[in-house]
Amino acid sequence: MGNTKIELLELLLIEVAKKRQTLTYRQVAQYLELHPPNTIHQATECIEAMMRLHAQFGTPQLASLVISKIRNGLPAPGFFMLLQEIGLYDGSVDGKDAREFHTREMNRCYNAVSRQRL
């Protein structure tokens, strides 16, 4: 997965943040024009690479704007697991702590974009 895909993903998610919206993993895969097999997995790899960059630079996790269609508005468990691995989250992959963290992180993205800091 090249840097170009990560850059495209960032641009997409900045536009999504400006509208205070979210996308599904499938929508991300379609936007990035990923081809079968495993398009969602390919999208996830790109999202995770972006998450590592954002963690490195201390910027809001735009990946919080990508949600799972089947998780009632939350990202996939891997989102939380990767953030645990890189030391940005200490909680479960679902439930109240995940929902609260996710809401805070989405708001960080929305606020950063409105202040033009992304």
Give an overview in words.
The chain is mainly α and 118 residues long. The protein contains five helices and two strands. It has a two-stranded parallel ribbon. Helix 2 (25-31) packs across helix 3 (39-57). The mean pLDDT is 94.
Task: Name the features.
5 helices, single chain, 2 strands, mainly alpha, two-stranded parallel sheet, 118 residues
Compact overview of the structure:
With 118 residues, the protein is mostly helical. The protein is 59% helix and 3% strand.
Secondary-structure-based class equals: mainly alpha
Distance between the termini: 22 Å
Low-pLDDT runs of 5+ residues are none
Q: Please report the total strand number as a whole number.
A: 2
* Overall shape: globular
The largest sheet is: 2 strands, parallel
Protein topology:
Elements lengths: L2 H16 L4 E2 H7 L7 H19 L8 E2 L9 H9 L10 H19 L4
Parallel strand pairs: 1-2
